[in-house]
């Protein structure tokens, strides 16, 4: 699946609606061991300790933006 998420400047309601819609679409996909999601999430993932289990030890960014938090929360 390929998506284009709302930008960081969009309202929280708009971003929340996007992730709710995305979840509903994924609920209708057949169950597999892996799901691949591609797209532009306008997210920045930083080096916070809480993210290391999800993205590993290395990141180009120092801090995570709101869209980064949203995609990590969705993915876990």
Features:
single chain, two-stranded parallel ribbon, mainly alpha, 3 helices, 2 strands, 76 residues
Question: Any chance you could write out the topology, listing elements then pairs?
Answer:
Blueprint: E1 2-4, H1 12-27, E2 38-40, H2 52-55, H3 66-75
Q: What does this entry look like structurally?
A:
The protein has one domain (2-75). The protein starts with a strand and ends with a helix. The mean pLDDT is 86. It is mainly alpha-helical and 76 residues long. Strands 1-2 form a two-stranded parallel ribbon. It is built from 3 helices and 2 strands; from the N terminus they run βαβαα. Helix 1 links the parallel strand 1 and strand 2. It has helices at residues 12-27, 52-55, 66-75, and strands at 2-4, 38-40. Helix content is 39%, strand content 8%.
Mean pLDDT: 86
Largest sheet: spatial strand order: 1-2
Helix proportion: 25-40%
Secondary-structure element order, N to C: EHEHH
Question: In brief, what are we looking at here?
Answer:
By secondary structure, the chain is mainly α.
